Amino acid sequence: MAHHFGSKQGLWIAVVEQLSQQLEPMIEATKQLGAARMSQRERVKQAIILFIETVSEDRYLGMFFATATTEQGERLNILLERYIRPYREAFVPLLIDAIEAGKLKPHDPDAMYFMMLMSISNAMSYSHILSTFTPLPKSPEKFKEEVLDIALGMFR
User: Fold this and answer.
1) Measured between alpha carbons, how far is 128 from 44 in angstroms, rounded to an integer?
2) Which InterPro entries does the record cross-reference, listed alphabetically (predicted)?
3) Whole-angstrom Cα distance, residue 79 to residue 71?
4) Domain that holds residue 148
5) CATH number of the domain enclosing 60
6) Comparing C-alpha atoms, which of 156, 53, 46, 48 is closest to residue 102?
7) The predicted structure's pLDDT at residue 20
8) What is the pLDDT of residues 51-109, one digit of tens each?
9) Whole-number pLDDT of residue 139
């Protein structure tokens, strides 16, 4: 490991960089929704769909995120700069626009963002645990539809 990455920290940074490249298209597509010709609520819905699709393609993405966000110091700062802040800067303006247009109930947009981010990524990433209680995760399309419906219910 040290031979290829220099250290455990080097390996961790390499994983973060790889995952940030994997997330880049979703972040860019979310940014583009800000100028899309659709209602403010529809923009939020499309952003949530993009997020669900991205997380469902690689459930380990959400698992890594859930574990990595417990870090402190430099690792947390790297995570904030590579994942959390860029996606926040794309998603939160959609929420603000929808709130200002009266399409969403007014709440703190950052709290809304983090509720969406954490609840969806955990539900999708830990679907193997959820499948102990419901067969829903065994039907991926139906599961994604249910997660979307629940998420949209959070954003009334």
Assistant:
1) 27
2) Tet_transcr_reg_TetR-rel_C_sf
3) 9
4) 2-154
5) 1.10.357.10
6) 156
7) 86
8) 999 999 887 887 887 777 777 888 888 888 888 899 999 999 999 999 999 999 999 99
9) 95
Average pLDDT over the chain reads: 89
Residue type, 3: H
Q: What are the Cα distances from residue 115, in Å, to 13, 36, 99, 111, 146?
A: 26, 24, 16, 6, 17
Q: What total of structural domains would you count in the chain?
A: 1
In Å, what is the CA distance from 58 to each residue of 19, 55, 65, 137?
Answer: 10, 6, 12, 14
Contact of 53 with 63, CB cutoff 8 Å: no
Vertex 92: Cα angle to 58 and 30 (nearest 5): 50
- pTM, two decimals, is 0.88
Distance CA 146, CA 140 (A): 10
% of residues, the chain, pLDDT over 90: 58
Cα dihedral across residues 47, 50, 52, 55: positive or negative: negative
Burial class (CB in 10 A: 0-12, 13-18, 19+), 121: buried
Which pLDDT band holds residue 147 (cuts at 50, 70, 90)? very high
Distance separating alpha carbons of residues 91 and 94, to the nearest angstrom: 5
